[in-house]
Amino acid sequence: KECNILAISGSLRRSSSNKALMKAAILLAPIHMNFTVYEELNSLPHFNPDLDVEEGPIAVQDFRGKLRAADGLLICTPEYGNGVPGVLKNALDWVVSSAELMNKPAAIITASPSPRGGDKAMESLLLTLNMIHAEVSEGATLMIPHIGLKLNAQGEITDEDTKQAVQALLRKLHTTCEEKQAL
Ligand code: FNR
To answer: Where does the signal peptide begin and end (predicted)?
Structure first.
């Protein structure tokens, strides 16, 4: 059965390594896994409960609709200031009340030039995703250190271990989606 994944990069940067990784991951994914890249992170307003009335702002409706339509979520994100990039946290804050991620399988990749691989962003992101009851299975998280050494100028993954780790993560996400669909 087809498994539709919404993919989000926590970096807005044009030459982002996380964006490159996300695109490379999509090309490595198993068949029957279809990806939509959410490109509108930057158009979401700052979360404000005062705006979260009736259907909410158009950009928020669009984001929530895309999450509802997806069977699962893939996040690739850097770490900024020992935490989750503000734009990504902002997006997640918009779905705390509306609960689109409740029971939805999610996989997370953090990539960083540092040897720690964005561990603090990962930890923080997991706290948030757990709070909103997204389903992050064991094996659905991956921290990639020294990212600059693992991608070439075309944004392809040149490191074999990284490639395999990304494929394993996607297989895990796919399996979790299939299990949900079988319920
Ligand atoms: C960073 N970077 C960074 N890296 C990290 O591992 N932990 C951190 O806390 C931070 N903090 C941070 C703050 C600011 C203001 C900048 C500009 C950068 C480095 C960051 O991981 C690096 O720039 C990545 O390349 C960003 O990811 P993208 O844009 O390549 O996907």
So the answer is: none
Q: What range defines the domain where residue 75 resides? A: 3-47+60-182
75-79: average pLDDT: 98
Q: Does the predicted TM-score (pTM) go above 0.95?
A: yes
Residue with tokens 């991951």: 25
Query: In this structure, what token pair is assigned to residue 53?
Result: 């009335």
Question: Cα(32) to centroid of ligand 1, in Å?
Answer: 33
Q: Is residue 52 part of a domain?
A: no
**In 3D, which of 98, 103, 123 has the Cα closest to residue 179?**
103
Max distance between CA atoms of the chain, in angstroms, equals 48
Ligand 1, atom 4, residue with closest C-alpha = 79
Region label for 126, one of left (φ > 0), alpha (ψ between -120 and 50) or beta (otherwise): alpha
| Nearest-angstrom CA–CA distance, 131 and 96 | 8
